Amino acid sequence: MVPNSLEKMVQLQRNPKNVRNICVLAHVDHGKTTLADCLISSNGIISSRLAGKLRYMDSREDEQIRGITMKSSAISLHYAQGDEEYLINLIDSPGHVDFSSEVSTAVRICDGCIIVVDAVEGVCPQTQAVLRQAWLENIRPVLVINKIDRLIVELKFTPQEAYSHLKNILEQINALTGTLFTSKVLEERAERESESHGTPGSDPAEQVYDWSAGLEDTDDSHLYFSPDQGNVVFTSAIDGWGFGIEHFAQIYSQKIGIKKEVLLKTLWGDYYINMKAKKIMKVDQAKGKKPLFVQLILENIWSLYDAVLKKDKEKIDKIVTSLGLKIGAREARHSDPKVQISAICSQWLPISQAVLAMVCQKLPSPLDITSERVEKLMCSGSQTFDSLPPETQALKAAFMKCGSEETAPVIIFVSKMFAVDAKALPQNRPRPLTQEEIAQRREQARQRHAERLAAAQGPEPVGPTADGSTPETSPEGEEPKGGEPQVESVTPRPVLQEDSSRETNQETFVAFARVFSGVARRGQKIFVLGPKYSPVEFLQRVPSGFSAPLDELPAVPHMACCTLEHLYLLMGRELQDLEEVPPGNVLGIGGLQDFVLKSATLCSVPSCPPFIPLSFEATPIVRVAIEPKHPSEMPQLVRGMKLLNQADPCVQILIQETGEHVLVTAGEIHLQRCLDDLRERFAKIEISVSEPIIPFRETITKPPRVDMVNEDIGRQQKVAVIHQAREDHSRVPEGVQVDADGLVTMTTPNKLATLSVRAVPLPEEVTRLLEENSDVIRAMEQLASSLNEGRGAPLSQKTQENIREFKGKLEQHLTGRKWRNTVDQIWSFGPRKCGPNILVNKSADFRNSVWAGPAGTATQEASRYRDVGNSIVSGFQLATLAGPMCEEPLMGVCFVLERWDQSKFEEPGASERRNRDLAGEGPGGAASGPLGDGGEGRRGGHPEPAEKRTAQKGEPALADCYGPLSGQLIATMKEACRYALQVKPQRLMAAMYTCDIMATSDVLGRVYAVLSKREGRVLQEEMKEGTDMFIIKAALPVAESFGFADEIRKRTSGLASPQLIFSHWEVIASDPFWVPTTEEEYLHFGEKADSENQARKYLNAVRRRKGLCVEEKIVEHAEKQRTLGKNK
Ligand SMILES: Nc1nc2c(ncn2[C@@H]2O[C@H](COP(=O)(O)OP(=O)(O)OP(=O)(O)O)[C@@H](O)[C@H]2O)c(=O)[nH]1
Ligand SMILES: [Mg+2]
């Protein structure tokens, strides 16, 4: 246990074969940080007695107080196995859902991971999530089943029961891996097939669909966790022990003389040993026999715990001597059995040995990076590897080689930026002085002292005072006092280096990164590639074989050049300065804060593509508005929020149009941490924080069939309800024509165009489909816009396939007379061109469907159609971005443009010509102007006020005063969409969390009470096998979730704690504008009926927050109307 020196680490870094970059992943509280402590203590960085208590990797104060990890952090460890020495770059990650983005940043720079599972709780929601993340990044996992001691001490299992329980956990986790694997194989197979599809001459017999093909011939045994594969270790991190079966195979092969290989295969599984015959047999041959794992391993551990807990001194001594251990007198006498257990076990079965040996044997080194992973990292968006330029493709070899020679391109990925106090940086830390410096300083001090003495004694100026300064103002300003100068002269204090004092008390950012190829050197110049950088563009602009120095390159978008100012070895709470970092290592980089916001790719050759963006599991959903307590401190707040944004991978910072500064976070705890950071580190001011802003969506539904007291609404009444809704809201002004079935017709202010729009609710599945396929929609949109600009890259096979599939699914769901041909007529998606609403164009001469791509761009007419059409699409985008109820985005609405009268602006310059015509004809001839007919009839008998007809002369001027037509079209379309919505039954949609709670049966009732109080809905309740734990899955509106976790914890005395993950949007059934209409409803809800209407409450809260008028009066008015209606 020698504390590792920096030189040792530097030396180990140079041998990538023996480097392991790994992260520890698990559900919250399964013991990642405790396990990390044990591994760290094996390097002597912390004492083994403190391991598990210190939680060294939780370096933040709030992490220690709350007992959960919030930031992932790295530490480099040294491990020797036989002659081989390994460098293990270990990253501890948080398990709480709120911080799952930190997991994403960790897995990207690792090659392998340790999945930790609590032996009691088993596979939990976050276990699934992290396993998926590891899978998506193509990193290899090993499994640690932790907290085995709880099976002994808490659950009081017998060894046999524990064995079955552990087997169960393994089955669960392997089932998960199986699902991931199967879906991947099928996907790959589909891909292969689509590529080979169409190759001429393929035998039709081969095309018979065989589902199992591909699955069978793909060997997947190495993917599953099994102790006999050596990728599972059983531990108790808190007691400091752990083992893999190899350890016992080794011991027993010597003890009972059975080959180690045989034992390795049989120690786990249903085998038993016939001691007399020294034979191993299958368990079912002889009933009542214990499996080897129970007999040879678990029983020993159980009896040790038993002896220690019962304080059976004799037995303990016997065990200790038989194991050949030496226990210190202090531990042996300690009254706490835990201390004794960990003293014995940590010698007998040292956890770090078991875990690190597995890591070194089973997890890949940086040299083993797979070509699949490299290709995936290099191809963002819809690109395929083959479509990359040849220079870029050539870089794959560099990745695979991970070479450190001079010619190797340097490729580094920065996965996050983390803030450190500038004082903590190695270059700012006080450092011990060298011998020469000490001697030099001593000499200087002696001189100063002599001068001062001389100045005090004699009047004549000596030395420095010759330049005019008086002796009193000597640079140090020190008064010679007694013997002090001597003290100074012999023991120079450690002095801060150079400019550190200037920088004190400031946050600086260090990049959390990994070198994938080449050697990163301090002071080296390197390119910073943003996520949108395209090597193609660079290669087009810069002639090949350029030789100019890096900073003289022509400007290329999304690319900057910077210097690697400082390189650090990440050592948990500390950083160590490094001169260079060889490939395959994790490192910290200082001085990038002005170049990198959250993540970036750094590369010495510009043909490198940016890495694919990190995939985040959690959607930021909790938003609050923030302002400084003292308005004058606004600049600090703005600066602080910028820093916070850089320091957190997942937080979003927005400035709304209203000027509000908004912070969007993944959950309550994340919010709390962000606010603390803002107050204490980044802004250092007092801030006031609004109540969480709860997002809603607006939608429409089909008219209800039953009323609020579940009585059927008759045909007549239904009409009355709709009618009433329209009257009540009186939102549709005059001049807008509304049909009985909700078709809204509007004309632009200059009367040149007329639009008829209808809003139809989309079926639920379609909305879901749109949401799930937003990537596909975005790819389509990108393609369309790039083709419009005249440049376009062909889509990859896969994207084309995805688009086809998406269209097929839409067609499948949009069936029936109402939706006939709808899919082909889709014009746009919204808001932001990829949202869950669609615009369908049913007007006669529709072109430009989203599927066709801009095929008709060739003709001038078509391009004009497109330009005018763009205004309409923009109007639709605006309408879907903010709905009429409370200006929240729309969801699940289909706007159908039924008619679009464009006869009046068909020819370009129609308006000017009209002006000319009018001028020539004089006052009498106005009737023959192009305004006279045309669209009139199509306006559906829209009554034109008489004076407008006669005032045609003035109209051109009037028309033009409304500004360009495109603007008018946008506004008209937007308004028409809003009115079309308002004549339909509108509903709010609430964001929903899925909530996983694990609770023991005695607190179950209280959990349910809290859930139902907050409108939660239990979806599933399951009992965990062999325990009295229940797993409850519930849906909970985000709006009701604030303080939920705290309340549950309080009510159950901390025995249950929920994990909330955003899951979907759900329509709130109640109509926010509902008022009682039938007698029963009056009876049931009273006259006002506003106490029960949850939707209305949400609606008003949002409107109030946004400063919109809250239409409470309308309800009163409506009541009166109903009364009148009834009396009639
Ligand atoms: N009984 C028992 N308790 C353990 C063991 N390992 C960890 N714990 C306890 O479990 C709790 C959580 O441990 P942590 O190491 O903080 O868990 P974590 O996985 O890092 O949690 P997050 O980082 O918040 O996701 C602590 O109270 C530990 O003392 C173990 O082997 N046995
Ligand atoms: Mg932790």
Topology:
Blueprint: H1 6-13, E1 19-26, H2 32-41, H3 61-66, E2 73-81, E3 84-92, H4 100-108, E4 112-118, H5 125-136, E5 140-146, H6 148-153, H7 159-196, E6 232-236, E7 241-243, H8 245-256, H9 260-266, E8 271-274, E9 279-282, H10 292-309, H11 313-323, H12 329-333, H13 337-348, H14 351-362, H15 371-378, H16 390-401, E10 411-421, H17 435-457, H18 484-490, H19 500-503, E11 507-517, E12 520-521, E13 525-529, H20 535-541, E14 559-563, E15 566-571, E16 574-578, E17 580-581, E18 586-590, E19 600-603, E20 622-628, H21 634-647, E21 652-655, E22 661-665, H22 668-682, E23 687-689, E24 696-700, H23 715-729, E25 737-738, E26 744-747, E27 754-761, H24 764-772, H25 774-788, H26 797-813, E28 826-830, E29 837-841, H27 860-881, E30 893-901, H28 910-921, H29 946-950, H30 955-960, H31 965-982, E31 986-1000, H32 1004-1013, E32 1017-1023, E33 1029-1037, H33 1044-1051, E34 1059-1067, H34 1079-1085, H35 1094-1106, H36 1112-1127
This protein binds guanosine-5'-triphosphate and magnesium ion (MG).
